[in-house]
Amino acid sequence: MSRRTALEASHAVAEAVRMADVDVIAAYPITPQTHIPERLAEMVADGELTAAYIPVESEHSALSTCLGSVAVGARTFTATAGQGLELMHEVVYVASSMRYPVVMAVCNRALSAPLSVWGDHSDAMAVRDTSWIQVFCQNGQEAFDLTLWAFRVGEDSKVLFPVMVHLDGFTLSHVTEPVILPEQSEVDRFLPIFQYPFALNPDKPMTHGAFGPPEIYSETKLAQEVAFRNSKEVILRGWKEFGDIFDRYYHPVEEYKTGNAETLLLTMGAYTETAKIVIDERRDKGEAIGLISLRLWRPFPFEEFRRTVKGAKLLIAFDRCVSFGMGGPVFSEIRSALYDEEPRPKVVSIIGGLGGRDMSEEDFDYVIDRGKEIAKKGPDRMLETVGIR
Amino acid sequence: MAEELTWKDLEVGNIITEAGNASFRKTGDWRTERPILDKEKCIKCALCWMYCPDAAIKPSEEGYYEADLHYCKGCGICASICPAEAIKMIEEEEK
């Protein structure tokens, strides 16, 4: 029997890692991710989890250690946030290009300067092009579920890509939530033993990480992109299998009250739940409005996204990051994804929730009202924002 | 060799499952100078063999040590370490 309990979302991630029976954890503590490696360290010390817990001197070393760990076929986990993800950056590319399926939780945090330990999506957007499978969580249950799912998908022999599970720093990572924990037997049914086909072995020597001169580098990148896009089949199958066992079904684009919606609000991460309250209120008043949330950020779910927004007249993209000199990164991507569609909704951009600035229900009311205004009259400032003086 | 591979031929993560195949790659063509051994001066001490950073110098049946020009990058360490001054570096274009 599964059991319903109260867990901090960070601890829900740690619980998923424990139930996935990982072999190696290498992590460096950084706010707001700290509770994940702390809890895992406790589990290993208390004998609740048999794994090598490798404390390292930096995030660069944390992920490098994880690569070595996957290279010998060990199930591997790490977690980081903000500056830590930035310090890892070059190894982030190496992990995916070498097809090492590390699972990493990222407690999304704003990037310095000015120094901020609080949440936004700047760290996630800075690694969007790295060919890690990336998903966003809205609540503690999803933090547990998607962490478990990440091992299932990343380690699949048809995928072999690392997976990032994004959960908003503090507004999700530090919040205690109701979480349904499954039986170990259910987890074992969902998650097979990791069988990495190229595990380093002295009896059968091979080379991982050879250099790529100009006559082959381009071919490696095409192979990587094709394999990455094709991973979607297993991503979807993983969610189907997850739902069949645990009775919670996930989708690349999550929809909320989208039926006959003329206006759609697009959010990612934990603020989706705040926005849903606003959608409820407006629906009650008869407004034809709905919400979509990108669960799967990479590989980008073109097909599902286009299908979901078909029929809407207006799409308001809410970004928690500024791509300097460009605007909202999610906005620019989804607008580009719709360019060839006929008919397509008008897409407008609003940025907010930066560096831990709260987004209240009133703020989302503003986002929707202002989004409609911009759609009619066009933006009257360089950057449309919410709650910025 | 690499020129013949298409993206479909690459192993996952570009892993090379056949160990030691770097030896097939001709790396000597980066060279701008090459070592010439004067066998009359050579004392067969093997210092050049020991110092070669690319293991490109090999012993011959007669006991001399000569550079394998398939790999030799022409760095000149062998010439500078030779106690008998038996190795001279010459421009690659010179015959």
What would you call the quaternary organization?
heterodimer
Mean pLDDT across residues of chain A: 97
For the sheet with most strands of chain B, the description reads: 2 strands, antiparallel
Q: Which descriptor suits the 3D outline of chain A? A: globular
State the end-to-end distance of chain B. Answer: 28 Å
Structure summarized in a few sentences:
The complex is a heterodimer of chains A (389) and B (95). By secondary structure, chain A is α/β, with parallel strands linked by helices.
What does this molecule look like?
The complex is a heterodimer of chains A (389) and B (95). Chain A has two domains: 3-245, Thiamin diphosphate (ThDP)-binding fold, Pyr/PP domains (Rossmann fold), CATH 3.40.50; 253-377, 3-Layer(aba) Sandwich (Rossmann fold). Chain A is 41% helix and 18% strand. Chain A contains 14 helices and 14 strands. Chain A has helices spanning 9-19, 35-45, 59-71, 82-87, 89-97, 122-126, 140-154, 184-190, 214-230, 232-246, 271-284, 302-309, 329-338, 361-377, and strands spanning 3-8, 24-27, 52-55, 76-80, 103-108, 133-136, 163-168, 176-181, 253-256, 263-267, 289-294, 296-298, 314-319, 346-351. The longest helix of chain A has 17 residues, at 214-230. In chain B, 11% of the residues lie in helices and 17% in strands. Chain B has two helices and four strands. In chain B, the strands form two sheets. Chain B has a two-stranded antiparallel ribbon. Chains A and B meet through α9 of A and loops of B.
Overview features:
heterodimer, A: 389 residues, alpha/beta, Rossmann fold, 2 domains, five-stranded mixed β-sheet, 41% helix, globular, B: 95 residues, alpha+beta, Alpha-Beta Plaits, two-stranded antiparallel sheet, elongated
Set down the secondary structure blueprint:
The complex is a heterodimer of chains A (389) and B (95).
Chain A (H helix, E strand, L loop, with lengths): L2 E6 H11 L4 E4 L7 H11 L6 E4 L3 H13 L4 E5 L1 H6 L1 H9 L5 E6 L13 H5 L6 E4 L3 H15 L8 E6 L7 E6 L2 H7 L23 H17 L1 H15 L6 E4 L6 E5 L3 H14 L4 E6 L1 E3 L3 H8 L4 E6 L9 H10 L7 E6 L9 H17 L12
Parallel strand pairs in A: 2-3, 2-4, 4-5, 5-7, 6-7, 10-11, 10-13, 13-14
Antiparallel strand pairs in A: 1-8, 6-12, 9-11
Helix pairs in contact in A: 1-2, 1-7, 3-5, 7-10, 11-14
Chain B lengths: L32 E5 L9 H5 L5 E3 L5 E3 L9 H5 L5 E5 L4
Antiparallel strand pairs in B: 1-4, 2-3
